Task: inverse folding
């Protein structure tokens, strides 16, 4: 931990200081520090900086915060640690460096988790995203019995083998910060590290939003519109993919993988909203997941035919 | 003789894979050594979260020389054949070959001498192959090399390989090879946090000792012992008892290299949640042990955790952290439990309409209705109250939709019982919610409460008949719906509760309740009965009893009363253990054999009553008399279901049968006498069929 930091920036006092410490640490490891993607998504993995950049031969090191929306996890602000909107901190390094575990442990030290007094463990947890057609092997990382991160070596994304393999780290920011700050309720997190009437809590920032969005997600989200949006996003994704193949579809070079992938993200989020509204039956659920996966796979295929995706 | 030390140092290996991986490593290396003619003295393998290690001692320094002879072409064969032979054997000319004469002519014989290689070279050849093809259940690629085809697959990234070979008295050699860019050497690493520095090792003895100094206990058994001893002591010191849990111990020992056992506590209020839920929470989610209070026999508000470090603050932070998580988890569990209590079990039923049990067998709701109807039919046959049974069958599955069971599937049934009691259900109804799943396996208890029995039978028979109807029967090792277990459950429920019911009738009724009907519906119950017979045989075989007796009883036909079948088998088994039984069996077999031969010869059977007027010998008359008596007596005993008495009656046949075979020649010259005697033999067979078909019994 950086001792020169003013008190209100220290990761154990301030949620924003905590985020900044992580960003700074990973910037020093050569990652580009991106800003959140400007679309609603269920996890940081959906960010094109992970999903798409994990594919293809070109090296890629990035870190970013991604607001993550899980409509079903809304609890009207009444649960101490479950929310429909929370932050993930995502690191992706391709190829995975040989010392990624050590880097991860150092990042914990940078946010005040000292491995001399904390019991840090790598516990088997294989990751799979049916909607992204992706899987990897790795661990959930435990600190004193609490899961604080996911650590994954991507093996396949969008149905394509990762060559080389990327290492992905996902930190659940609120949970980690709660641990470091020693609070039991997420809304009690000190957001800005100040005291007295200058103090802003996580609740000040997000409690009302949790209540409003829970109402929206479970009770009022316009399902007719959402069903329509799903279809539109799906159609648009396919349309952009078709149109993106250069020179009449010889499938050598693609020029619109990113806009097409946005529609895949969109479809995925709309599906999550419909799921939260309880209007998708068990059997339909499977078919929706499959439809999103088909989009993700097609986007992955387009991506590897772009410049950043490694096309010659 | 020299020893091998091999260590594969990697990132954290999943706990559940470690034991098998160590075993595989030992087996693969030693099998290959033996195949290479290197017979070793002993081998042992170990696993920790970060390493697989193997020591093989007493390996010969060199392979034995191999001499093989190769037969070549005939003397005077064309040159092409000769050249081929020289090339294959490595001989310079035919002068170096021997000539061997055999009936087909003279042949060249080449002697190929393959000198044994140094064991270290053999190892350098076989070890990389074993590493590259190691049978991990799941493996992965990583790092820059994964961009190229053919990169190594390992369970998690592999970082270092230590491989040394040599005599105890000398500096060992490194077995030189490389796998995916990793060169073998003598460098390993200690505990990730407590002693991360590189360590130079020579051979297994100093390897194990140096690791111990570097806070790594190599042997999983030692880690387990240490955890168990410390955990027991820690609990005991505070007046508690560790609740032992072998599976958890195995797993936890695979998560640490340096086990440090600590104790934490939680608020006593959480103890109001059922103990099983507390245990499941602490065990499944946190991999911690629970402790009990010996005074009350109930769980105490303590738990035992196993850390991987000796913390500089003595573990205070670690305990506090674990307590926080356990408090949050227990608080969730308590919330789930209390939420569940707010909804009556029957109110959950409509939700089952949306849950598919099996696509061909309909929804859970349909299944529950079937079980309810079948249980009500079975109830009077097992002495259960119909109303209570119906109620129990309706509620028995509802806990599947509760929050607690959603979170911890292993407490299904048990939670049903708690919730049923909490909403004031009858004690038998509540018990059935839990017990209708029983018996789950051969060691599980069989319920005795008639309501539980009725629902348990209905549940299992509905499952069996359903999957039979859609032709999803178990095959070979595949039994995804645990149908064998269900059938064995039915057998034990019936036998251990001494129940009388016709399986065919119950199965037919269950079948009638299904919405799908198989093509040959009428055959299903008897087909299923044969499956029960098989299960019964397997069960008897496992108990060391004679399973051939099941065939002997089933061969009588029309047997679908399992209890009677089991009783007959038991009585028959006892009888055959006695001298009377053995001799009578021998006599009956002899009679059957003679009959079989003569029936074949004459192309006819010898049914029908013998003619008393044709008896010429006393032994014939005595046998005929005995058969009549035994038939009457055994028949009466069987009618009273007293199979022991039937067997005693059967025993009376033995002296006249023995005497008959002693004194009487069956194939008399007078064909009428012969026919009559064969008819008499046939009578023996039919008399004994009152209890079993003795011809199906193996000697």
Result:
């Amino acid at each position: 931990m950086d001792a020169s930091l003013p008190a209100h920036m220290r990761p154990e006092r301030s949620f924003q200081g905590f985020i900044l410490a992580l960003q700074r640490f990973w910037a020093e490891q050569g990652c580009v520090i991106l800003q959140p993607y400007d679309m609603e998504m269920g996890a940081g993995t959906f960010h094109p900086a992970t999903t798409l950049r994990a594919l293809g031969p070109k090296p890629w090191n990035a870190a970013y915060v991604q607001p993550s929306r899980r409509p079903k996890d809304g609890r009207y602000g009444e649960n101490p640690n479950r929310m429909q909107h929370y932050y993930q901190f995502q690191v992706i390094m391709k190829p995975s460096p040989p010392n990624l575990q050590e880097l991860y442990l150092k990042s914990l030290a940078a946010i005040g988790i000292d491995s001399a007094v904390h019991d840090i463990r790598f516990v088997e947890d294989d990751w799979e995203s049916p909607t992204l057609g992706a899987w990897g092997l790795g661990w959930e990382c435990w600190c004193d019995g609490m899961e604080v991160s996911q650590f994954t070596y991507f093996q396949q994304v969008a149905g394509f083998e990762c060559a080389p393999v990327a290492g992905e780290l996902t930190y659940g920011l609120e949970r980690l910060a709660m641990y470091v700050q020693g609070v039991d309720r997420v809304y009690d997190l000190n957001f800005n590290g100040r005291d007295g009437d200058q103090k802003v809590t996580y609740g000040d920032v997000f409690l009302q939003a949790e209540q409003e969005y829970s109402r929206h997600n479970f009770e009022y989200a316009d399902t007719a519109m959402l069903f329509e949006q799903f279809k539109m996003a799906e159609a648009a994704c396919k349309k952009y993919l078709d149109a993106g193949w250069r020179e009449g579809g010889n499938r050598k070079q693609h020029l619109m993988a990113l806009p097409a992938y946005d529609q895949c993200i969109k479809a995925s989020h709309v599906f999550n909203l419909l799921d939260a509204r309880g209007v998708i039956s068990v059997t339909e659920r499977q078919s929706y997941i499959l439809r999103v996966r088909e989009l993700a796979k097609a986007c992955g295929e387009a991506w590897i035919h772009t410049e950043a995706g490694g096309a010659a | 003789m020299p020893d091998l030390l091999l260590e594969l140092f990697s990132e954290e290996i999943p706990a559940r894979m470690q034991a098998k991986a160590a075993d595989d490593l030992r087996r693969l290396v030693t099998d290959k050594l033996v195949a290479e003619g290197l017979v070793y003295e002993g081998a042992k393998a170990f696993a920790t979260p970060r390493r697989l290690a193997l020591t093989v001692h007493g390996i010969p320094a060199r392979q034995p020389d191999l001499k093989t002879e190769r037969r070549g072409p005939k003397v005077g064969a064309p040159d092409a054949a000769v050249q081929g032979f020289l090339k294959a054997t490595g001989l310079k000319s035919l002068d170096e070959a021997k000539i061997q004469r055999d009936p087909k002519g003279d042949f060249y014989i080449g002697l190929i001498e393959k000198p044994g290689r140094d064991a270290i070279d053999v190892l350098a050849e076989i070890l990389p192959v074993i590493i590259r093809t190691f049978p991990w259940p799941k493996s992965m690629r990583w790092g820059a090399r994964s961009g190229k085809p053919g990169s190594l697959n390992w369970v998690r990234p592999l970082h270092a390989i230590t491989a040394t070979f040599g005599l105890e008295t000398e500096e060992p050699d490194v077995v030189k090879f490389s796998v995916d860019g990793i060169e073998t050497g003598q460098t390993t690493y200690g505990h990730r946090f407590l002693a991360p520095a590189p360590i130079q090792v020579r051979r297994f003895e100093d390897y194990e000792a140096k690791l111990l100094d570097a806070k790594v206990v190599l042997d999983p058994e030692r880690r387990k012992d240490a955890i168990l001893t410390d955990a027991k002591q820690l609990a005991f010191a505070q007046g508690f008892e560790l609740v032992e849990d072998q599976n958890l111990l195995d797993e936890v020992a695979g998560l640490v290299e340096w086990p440090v056992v600590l104790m934490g506590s939680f608020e006593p209020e959480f103890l109001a949640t059922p103990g099983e839920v507390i245990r499941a929470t602490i065990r499944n989610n946190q991999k911690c042990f629970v402790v009990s209070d010996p005074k009350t026999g109930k769980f105490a508000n303590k738990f035992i955790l196993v850390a991987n470090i000796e913390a500089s603050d003595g573990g205070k932070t670690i305990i506090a952290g674990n307590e926080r998580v356990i408090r949050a988890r227990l608080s969730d569990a308590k919330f789930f439990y209390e939420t569940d209590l707010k909804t009556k079990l029957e109110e959950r039923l409509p939700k089952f309409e949306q849950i598919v049990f099996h696509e061909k067998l309909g929804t859970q709701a349909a299944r529950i209705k079937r079980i309810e109807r079948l249980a009500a039919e079975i109830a009077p046959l097992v002495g259960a109250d119909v109303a209570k049974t119906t109620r129990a069958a309706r509620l028995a599955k509802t806990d599947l939709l509760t929050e607690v069971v959603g979170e911890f599937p292993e407490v299904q049934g048990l939670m049903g019982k708690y919730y049923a009691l909490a909403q004031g259900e009858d004690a038998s109804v509540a018990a059935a919610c839990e017990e209708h799943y029983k018996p789950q396996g051969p060691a599980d208890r069989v319920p005795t409460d008639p309501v539980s029995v009725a629902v348990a039978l209905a549940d299992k028979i509905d499952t069996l008949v359903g999957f039979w109807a859609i032709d999803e029967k178990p095959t070979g090792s595949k039994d995804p719906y645990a149908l064998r277990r269900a059938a064995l459950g039915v057998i034990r429920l019936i036998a251990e509760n001494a129940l009388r019911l016709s399986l065919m009738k119950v199965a037919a009724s269950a079948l009638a309740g299904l919405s799908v009907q198989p093509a040959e519906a009428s055959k299903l119950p008897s087909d299923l009965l044969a499956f029960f017979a098989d299960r019964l045989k397997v069960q008897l075989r496992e108990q060391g009893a004679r399973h051939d007796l099941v065939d002997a009883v089933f061969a009588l036909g029309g047997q679908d009363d399992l209890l009677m079948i089991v009783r007959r088998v038991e009585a028959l088994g006892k009888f055959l253990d006695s001298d009377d039984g053995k001799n009578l069996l021998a006599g009956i077999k002899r009679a059957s054999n003679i009959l079989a031969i003569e029936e074949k010869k004459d192309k006819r059977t010898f049914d029908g009553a013998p003619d008393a007027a044709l008896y010429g010998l006393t032994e014939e008359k005595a046998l005929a008399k005995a058969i009549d008596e035994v038939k009457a007596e055994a028949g009466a005993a069987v009618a009273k279901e007293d199979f022991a008495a039937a067997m005693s009656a059967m025993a009376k046949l033995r002296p006249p049968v023995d005497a008959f075979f002693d004194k009487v020649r069956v194939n008399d010259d007078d064909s009428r006498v012969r026919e009559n005697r064969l008819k008499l033999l046939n009578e023996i067979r039919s008399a004994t069929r009152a209890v079993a078909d003795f011809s199906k019994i193996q000697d």
Remarks:
- The longest strand of chain A covers residues 146-157.
- The first helix of chain A runs from residue 15 to 28.
- The domain at 222-303 of chain A is CATH 1.20.58.180 (Methane Monooxygenase Hydroxylase; Chain G, domain 1).
- The two ends of chain A are 43 Å apart (CA to CA).
